[in-house]
Amino acid sequence: MLSLLNDINPWIIGVGLNAILLAIVAIIPKKLLTPAGIFHAWLLGVIIWGTLGWPGYLVVAFYFIVGSGVTRIGMKEKEAAGIAEKRSGARGPENVWGSALIAALCALGVLLVPDLKFLLCLGYVASFSTKLSDTTASEVGKAYGKSTFLITTLQPVARGTEGAVSLEGTLAGIVGSVAIALVGWGVNLIDVLGIILCVIAAFIATNLESVIGATLQSQYTWLTNEIVNIFNTLIGAIVAILIALIWQLIVV
Question: How far apart are CA 203 and CA 197, in angstroms?
């Protein structure tokens, strides 16, 4: 089957496969994407399949499925407390690109600069590892965090406060980053060292994102959650790539 897919232009496969899968997403009772979100997710899927093929697509699909699932953890309680994601977690265009813009740029970079494929694939997986870590930490923390603290002062704050962290959320975030890094390793986008780098980068980026939320987000109206997510995933990708470069210098 994979041999047959390899013989067909990947962009054609991306167009058709995403049309079929997102048509299914559109008709299922539980809405995972808004109508506009479906189109933008289709565009993202075409880019990923066209550049990285099924391995890259499997990573983004894993993020979408798991991320959508954890968003719905404790949904009734979070909605009652006013801290749930809008539209009951259905993702719109801003969510699609807030989560995956950096990954898409890394994927396009593989097409344009193939000599940097190893580092760009690492950045690709690290960006999604970071985003899943952030999503998992936030949603589990809002649903099950027993004690939440503002990351900059460690003062107790209410669940759902921008920049708040909890032990439960932090541990869940680490699990999320490990899970998607393992998927990236399983499809040969990264090596074993890459798993470690993705988890480290995700931890650093997720905590820096909390610092941004606690200090800057309330001061600038343009700094929306989606923009912060772009910075978050960018930091994750850059940290993983920089550590990989430093490691190469040490080893050589």
Answer: 10
Task: Match 């990708």 to its residue by tokens.
Answer: 237
Between CA 123 and CA 245 the distance in angstroms is 12
* Rg, Å, the chain Cα set: 18
Residues 184 and 59 sit within 8 Å (Cβ to Cβ): yes
- For residue 72, the one-letter residue type is R
Query: How many Cβ atoms are within 10 Å of 67's Cβ, its own excluded?
Result: 23
Identify which of 175, 98, 84 has the alpha carbon closest to the alpha carbon of residue 136.
Answer: 175
User: Do 174 and 188 contact (CB within 8 A), yes or no?
Assistant: no
Structure tokens at 168: 């439960």
State the pTM of this model. 0.89
* Identity of residue 203: F
d(CA 97, CA 69): 19
The CA-to-CA distance between both ends of the chain, in Å, stands at: 40
d(CA 147, CA 162): 15
Token representation of residue 31? 């809405």
In 3D, which of 204, 205, 202, 184 has the Cα closest to residue 194? 184
Instruction: Give the pLDDT confidence of 180-235 residue by residue, as tens digits.
Output: 999 999 999 999 999 999 999 999 999 999 899 888 887 888 888 899 999 999 99
The Cα-based distances of 200 to 181, 206, 207 in angstroms read 11, 10, 11
